[in-house]
Amino acid sequence: MRPEQVIAALRFDPMLPVWLIAAIAVAAALVCLFALWRRAKGAILRILAFGLLVLWLAGPRAVRETRETQPDIGLIVLDQSASMREGDRAAIADAAQSALREQARQFPDLELRVVAVPEKGDSGTQLFAEIERAAGEIPRARMAGIVAITDGQVHDIPEAVPGGVPLNVLIPAKGEETDRRVRIVEAPGFGIVGKPVTLRFAVDDLGTSGRAETTLTIRRDGEPPRTSTIPTGREQRVEIPIARAGPTIVELSASPLPGEISQINNRAVVEINGVRDRLRVLLISGEPHPGERVWRRLLKADPSVDLVHFTILRPPEKDDLTPLNELALIAFPVRELFQEKIGEFDLIVLDRFQNRGLLPLPYLANIANRVRQGGAVLMSVGPEFSGATSLAATPLGSVLPGAPARFNAVVNERFQPMVSELGQRHPVTAGLSGANPPDTAGPAGWGSWYRRIQPGDVKGSVLLRTPEGQPLLALDRVGQGRAALLLSDQIWLWSRGHDGGGPQGELLRRIAHWLMREPALEENALTARVAEGRLTIRRRTLEAAPPGNVAVTGPDGKEQTLPLNPAGQGQAEASLPALEPGVWRASDGNQTAFAAAGAANPREIADLRATASLIGKLARTSGGGVHFLGTAAALDMPALRRTEPDRPASGGSWIGMQRRHDNVVTGVVSLTLLPAWLSVPAILALMVLAWRREGA
After folding, report:
1. Which residue, among 656, 517, 538, 675, has the nearest Cα to 593 in the 3D structure?
2. 471-478 sheet: strands from edge to edge
3. Which of 16, 77, 101, 583 has its CA 20 to 30 A from that of 235?
4. Can you tell me the distance from the alpha carbon of 331 to that of 143, in angstroms, rounded to the nearest whole number?
């Protein structure tokens, strides 16, 4: 604190209400004026008596106060957001803070407080929110000013500086900077497989005048890049084809701008999730049986499936001229479905269907060809699968995972379905509720079935088996397509809750979606995902071999190798921090996965310039100014001065902190100038003298 100050003053402590004293004074003045007008001999004495009376009633006092001046408080606001990590900004800011505190030591009446502005994620730099918080702890009468050390990228600039004090901004740069960025205007989150989506974007040059051209590079899921020359500052559109279901990673990158501060925002990454548009399923039911409607109910309940269902009981050669209103059975549209529109179906389900001439062999061959070309077929079979009418003896049998045994194919016995060792790792059957535990001899908690078909040979992957190891469910890849064979027609018992039931709906849903290439059900897959700043790589495989390693390439092109750790059920995973935005690439040697990492603070990297264009107006309006600090090696630090509240707080090479002159009273001494023991006798004496003078 500064030394004590002594202040003397004259104060009044009225003995009566002020209005009453004023009335007495007016009455006394009238009496005295009348006496003067009549030229009374004692008029002067009466004026002195009345004047002394009024002054005594006013209670004059001599007051002496001792005061102690309080030190002023200034704020140093240090920006520590993400954009301050560019170049040597953080080092310059620390040097400027130290220089300010060193200069403040020459002013004993000035106290500096440092406020740090931390990284706030998606909300950007909240500099003035921290100022408001710090200013709330400082008396307004003692706040001398604010010095903000920031790159100028502030996202909560108010209309006025908190506290109404001058704001000086110190920018850790040599001057206004330039930057180029890729800005996404509109990016769809989803796209239909087989159809392109439109991506809208622009390349902006910040801190420059006029427009230029730049080379734009577009990469999609690691495919060869496409390059083109586009103008900056204008919205552009590009068509992105969606070739498969699941995430499609698109990276846009622009060539560097000469002299720009950073290239981190010269690229932008967009993730578009490919979805299938109403998967078309053809369900053909054969002879009626208790579980006939199981597949229909399942597929009808799936909103992503467009189901066409027929039950064929009338052979195509029965198409005669009988009127429709007399037909018991309508002819089946064989040619339209199995020749003209066979390519429109993603999955064909044959439920208890047999070759009784209902479908000519060329049409069954069309189904097999459709599977090889990328379609899928699922057969749920019973006794009709054995014998001479079995579909395994037709051209369709060439794409099926198995065929019935030549003798005694139909087995009628009670058994409990179990998940095979391979099925414990396959996503179609892994983790099914109530399944037999892996690596143990314990039974499954499912209800029993009573009939199955004994296969002669089985191809592909056997996922369900009997307790004796006989196949019940087999999946296989054929050409570009897929096939599934369920060697029992008893799964409907689970839907009725027989013997405790089982996961009938979930199992059938998984089989159907695996056949239709659901990415989450791929048995051999490598996936990568960035969430909460970490890249997680997960590999699923049917092999029982050790997980091995995965090579990870970051957005900067640097590669590192990570070991994959077993995660159960044929899965292994690895993770690492993914703080740099862009496309991350993971490869196990056979498969490659991509993941998009967004910026931790997209508002911060949207503009990385050190600039006074955003905060400069507020600083100058408050009475302060903006100063560029140069480089860490050659710091151009302004001098710190003390200014008066009505004077500017910034100059060409200096910044100011106001003197607020706030103080506290440490002592008060009060002396009555007209005590009663002196005033009353004096008033009476003057009145007596005036009376005697008038009587003389």
Report:
1. 538
2. 305-311, 279-285, 347-351, 376-380, 481-486, 471-478, 461-465, 418-419
3. 583
4. 93
Report whether 249 contacts 216 (CB < 8 A): no
Beta carbons of 401 and 455 less than 8 angstroms apart = no
- With bands split at pLDDT 50, 70 and 90, how would you rate the model's confidence at 1? very low
Residues whose CB is less than 8 angstroms from the CB of residue 541 and which lie 6 or more positions away in sequence, other chains included: 425, 523, 524, 570, 572
Which 3 state secondary structure label does DSSP give 413? strand
Encoding tokens for residue 583?
């496309």
- Beta-carbon contacts of 556 under 8 Å, excluding residues fewer than 6 positions away, are 580, 582
Q: Rounded to whole angstroms, how far apart are CA atoms 401 and 379?
A: 10
- As a three-state string, the secondary structure of 562-612 is EECEEEECCEEEEEEECCCCEEEEEECCCCEEEEEECCCCHHHHCCCCCCC
Angle (CA) 431 434 440, round 5°: 80
Tokens 């899921």 correspond to 221
Closest CA to 242 of 16, 493, 519: 519
For residues 183 and 203, the answer to whether their CB atoms sit within 8 Å is yes
How do residues 317-332 score in pLDDT, each as one tens digit? 555 555 545 554 555 6
Q: What is the chain's alpha carbon radius of gyration, rounded to the nearest angstrom?
A: 46
- The tokens for 359 are 């479908």
Residue 6: predicted pLDDT? 57
Closest to 302 (Cα-Cα) out of 452, 106, 591, 506: 506
**More confident call, 356 vs 241:** 241
Residue 328, pLDDT score: 47
Strands 347-351 and 279-285: parallel
Q: How many C-beta atoms lie closer than 10 Å to residue 297's C-beta? A: 11
**What is the percent of the chain with per-residue pLDDT over 90, rounded to a whole number?**
35
pLDDT tens digits along 173-207: 999 999 999 999 998 888 888 889 999 999 999 98
Cβ(236)–Cβ(200) under 8 Å? yes
| Order of strands across the sheet that contains 196-206 | 179-186, 196-206, 235-241
Q: Which of 496, 452, 506 is nearest to 474 (CA)?
A: 452
CA separation for the pair 361, 375 (Å, rounded): 18
What is this structure's pTM? 0.69
If you ran DSSP here, which 8-state letter would residue 322 be given?
-
Indicate the average pLDDT of the chain.
85
Residue type, 653: S
Dist. CA 497–CA 460, nearest whole Å:
30
- Domains annotated for the chain, with CATH where assigned, are 4-68+667-695 (no CATH), 74-175+609-661 (3.40.50.410), 179-274 (2.60.40.10), 279-515 (3.40.50.880), 525-597 (2.60.40.10)
Burial of residue 577, with CB atoms counted within 10 A of its CB: 0-12 exposed, 13-18 middle, 19 or more buried: exposed
Q: What one-character DSSP code corresponds to residue 357?
A: S
pLDDT at position 657 = 94
Strands across the sheet with 226-231, in order? 190-192, 267-275, 246-254, 213-220, 226-231
Say which DSSP state 199 is in: E
d(CA 314, CA 332): 7
Per the listing, tokens 């993400």 go with 82
Of residues 666, 665, 661, the one with CA closest to residue 142: 661
Closest CA to 542 of 516, 517, 522: 522
First to last CA, the chain: 67
Total number of residues shown for the chain: 696
Look at residue 506 and give its three-state secondary structure. Answer: helix
Single-letter residue type at 622: S
